[in-house]
Amino acid sequence: MIRRLLPAISVLSLLLCVSAVGVLVRSYRVEDEPTFVTSGHTFVQLTTRHGQFSLDVVKDWPDRCRAWYTGDPYDEFGPMYGLATNLYTQTERAGVTLISGSFFIAIRKGQAAIRSHAYQNNDVYFASDVIVNRRGFELRVPLGYCAALFAAIPFSWALLLRVSALRDRRRKNERRCVACGYDIRASKDRCPECGTPIPTE
Question: For 104, what's the count of Cα atoms within 13 Å in the CB-facing half-sphere?
């Protein structure tokens, strides 16, 4: 069953690989940030920037709060400073970064002006209507990793086809059944082991 689905999966994976390469090239010119807020108020944002893909998930997103403040953040209101805190953990392995813990969300006119992992001295927060603290995580992965992952499936399929073709050729030269490898030198029409028709020379 899996071998039957492998060609379709490989084609789909190859298309995703090409798309990932396209997004990788685009990320150095344009920053994309599609954002979703589910009915359960879970904030999900996908970001592509400078060759990296980021996934941000924040639980209990504030009601009626859009993702970003669209006005000029420096217009009419100045900086806000917070106390030094360290309420998040950050781990990095092989270029993949995971940040989890608290997100400080500065809300201005119903929109999030800043969303940050730390609320520290000398961090400038725009004067806001309210600042809330929510739990969440951010995962950062190089887009090249995504392209390589999607390329692995069609590459494996092509390698499997090549290995199968070499095996079949060897069995045919040795007068063995191409399906099961049984010795068919004494047989004429079908393999006595599995019933596979013997190809004519």
Answer: 23
Tokens, residue 19: 């798309």
Q: Per the domain annotation, does 137 fall within a domain? A: yes
Per-residue b/e over 162-192, b at no fewer than 16 CB within 10 Å? eeeeeeeeebeeeebbbeeeeebeeeeeebe
Q: Which residue has the higher pLDDT, 40 or 149?
A: 149
pTM: 0.64
Q: Is residue 164 part of a domain?
A: no
Domain of 114 in residue numbering reads as 2-145
How much is the pLDDT for 70? 46
User: Structurally, how many domains does the chain consist of?
Assistant: 1
Q: How far apart are CA 169 and CA 43, in angstroms?
A: 56
pLDDT at 156 over 80: yes
54 vs 59, 98, 160, 175, CA distance in Å? 17, 10, 33, 56
